[in-house]
Amino acid sequence: MATSSILRALAFFALLFVQAIEAEARTIVDMSGRAVVLPEKASRVVTLGAVPVLNGFLFAFGEQDSIVNGLPTALARKYQYVFAPGLAQKPIVQGAEKALAVEEIVGLRPDVILTMDVATAESLRSLRLPAIYLRWTAPDDVKTLMALLGEIFGKRGLAGEYAAYFDRTLELVARRVGSSDGSERPRVLYVDLRRLTQPHRVADWWIARAGGRSLTDAPRDQESVTFSLEQMLAWDPQVLIVADRAEAEMAFHEPRLQNMSAIRDRRVYVAPSGAHLWANRTVEQPLTVIWAATIIHPELFSLEELRAEMGAFYDRFFHTRLSREQIDDILGGSGGR
Question: Could you tell me the pTM of the whole model?
Fold first, then answer.
């Protein structure tokens, strides 16, 4: 069948879905300003693109069972299956290069499709599919995003609870670390050692909120920043944060890094990994701030306090009671891919 014929067929089936829900429909305006028609109850959800990130938002609303697609192999994280065991049996509709299996997506009969890629949302909407674009650029966007999902799932109160928790957590950490001048704070670098990049701009934000001075915190438009080994040595970070255990081993065994303060003082840390890697954008971001404050200012925050906060967070928002071993597994970065 020619591509144009396939697209016409997909558009036809999508139109049938729209007509089926027309009697009990509502209009939602997404974060690109586009109006999208959804059924009164959104109980079948497809997540596309940054799937672990998007799933985390659904976990926070207790909507694990609403997700009808599985995790792409390249993006799979262990604790996604702890928080939502049913994901293991769901069909995968996204390839390694983010190519979408549109026919399979239509076949899943989604009430709503969530994506953080505006081009994907536009493409799917052209097929009359109910695609919602979610944006997360500034740190506070997470609260706007949660409010929109609260509207979609009829859980505005829970979205408000999360926003209040987010603000309270930041206020708690701010009170303890104080308002010292940035130059007096410990020098912190979140780094991908394999590529010599700081991969996510949000890290500059949570490092500062945790009472550190991010060495890559300078105005930039791009998400990541690349630097040389010489630049990293000149910065001389006192705290080094990496994404996995293999990178931590690299740091300690790289001869050229041995005089770096973070290496000499054994202050190299693997970022925790739960629903997603905490160092990147995730609904778990309040926990990221507490964790970072614990490693940057261990005299102000205890590991036991962090463990208790994690247990309460996942119990309250993800409806999952984690064991002490699971909490330590997440803290050790073992929950990754």
Answer: 0.90
